[in-house]
Each structure stands twice: as C-alpha cells, then as structure tokens.
Amino acid sequence: MLDILVIIFMVMGLFFFFGTTVGIVRFPDFYTRTHAAGKGDTLSVMLMLFGLALYNLHHLSPATLLVSGKIVIICVVVFIASPTATHAIMDAGYEAKVRHWSRPGAPKDPQDNSGEKQ
Amino acid sequence: MTHFFISSGVIILLLMFVVLYRVVKGPTPLDRILGVNVIGTKTMVLIVLIGTLYERVEMFVDIALTYALLNFIASLAAARFFQRHKKIHLEEEERGEGAAC
C-alpha cells in the first residue's frame, strides 16, 4: 500500500520534471523559460522528496522518523528557496532588458525600445 | 522497488542532460544560470535517491540539505552579479547571437 503511494508520488514528480525540461528547452523566450523552471522544478522536487520520505517510513522507529523529518525540512527549504532564486534570476534579466519574444509581424510594443534589431 | 528507484534515477539523469542543452546553448548568461539551478535542484533528489538505494539515508540527507542551501546561495549570487554588470555581458552575448543568425 505504501509502495503504491510512493510510486504515485515519484511518477508524478517525474512527469512534472519532464514538463519542466520540455519548457526549458522549447520555450522561445527567457521569461517563459523562467516560468517553466520556477513552477515545475519546485513541484517535482517536492513530490519526489515526499515520496522518498514516505518510503523511508517502512520500518517505523525514531531514527527513520528523524530522517523523514529531515527530508520534509528539505522540502520546506526548496519550497522557499527555489522560487526566490528563480525570481532573482528573472529580476536580473528584467533589469538588464533582455528582449522578450513577440509574434513575428505583430505590432510593435511602444514601451519596448530594445527590439530594433529584429 | 529497487528497480523502480534505479529507473527513476536514470530518467532524472537523462532529463538533466536535456536541460544541459540549454546551459550550453542558452542565448544569455541568465539562461545558463537557470539551467544550472534546475540541474542542481535535481541533483539533490538524486542524492537522496542514492541514499535510499544504499540504505544509508541518514547520512545522505544531510548532504542533500547542504547541497540545497549551496545551490540557493550560488544562484542568488550569480543573479546579483549579472544584475550589476548588466551592460557588458548581455549585450556582448546578444551581438554574438545576431551574428550567428
């Protein structure tokens, strides 16, 4: 029963990581890539670590409880740190005026003064 | 269950190589930092997975926690660095991209 739960969590994490990878490789723009990395990465890591923490509780004892608590602490750290790091990276890109993607042939954004080259 | 853990570890590793494409190719340095951040986060999962396979999780969990904090600090520092030195690096990179097209 516990194994089935662990397998469900791990497969969901792998699925979300696959989505993150496709987003990072295929999206046309720095900002959209940041979006894919920030969301999918956090969720997939949390799901996988939660599955491993559940699997660790097979032999229930204070030691395994402590280890599972540490894995949950890693989950909390990732939940706080990963979106913060992604936001910092995206903020740096925004301040450095990385060009954003727009449809070919679309009317020009009047506020965009960095896209003359295309 | 061991087979399942080994195969999920191999899948994570293969997907990490796919992300490495963005690190190598990425038009701006910030794309590269983003890819390295994702790879580092996944390495953490891989460390806990290896610990589960070797049945020494209590040791590997501490390494994973340290790795998470180091990864966070490294990403923040790199992002701050490129925020300060924005003009030089990013424009140089974009010029290279335009020449390649």
Draw up the topology in text:
The complex is a heterodimer of chains A (118) and B (101).
Chain A: H1 2-26, H2 30-55, H3 62-95
Chain B: H1 2-25, H2 29-54, H3 57-84, H4 86-100
Helix pairs in contact in B: 1-2, 2-3
Brief synopsis:
Chain A is an all-alpha fold and 118 residues long. Chain A has helices at residues 2-26, 30-55, 62-95.
Keywords:
heterodimer; A: 118 residues; mainly alpha; 3 helices; elongated; B: 101 residues; Helix Hairpins; 4 helices
Structural notes for this entry:
The complex is a heterodimer of chains A (118) and B (101). Chain A has one domain (2-95). Chain A contains 3 helices and no strands. In chain A, helix 1 runs antiparallel to helix 2 (30-55) and helix 2 packs antiparallel against helix 3. Chain A is mainly α. The mean pLDDT of chain A is 85. Chain A is 72% helix and 0% strand. The longest helix of chain A is centred in the middle third of the chain and has 34 residues, at 62-95. Chain B has 101 residues and is an all-alpha fold. Chain B has a single domain, classed as Helix Hairpins (Orthogonal Bundle). Chain B has 4 helices and no strands. Chain B has helices at residues 2-25, 29-54, 57-84, 86-100. In chain B, helix 1 (2-25) packs antiparallel against helix 2 and helix 2 runs antiparallel to helix 3 (57-84). The model of chain B has no long low-confidence stretch (mean pLDDT 83). Chains A and B meet through helix 1, helix 2 and helix 3 of A and helix 1, helix 2, helix 3 and helix 4 of B.
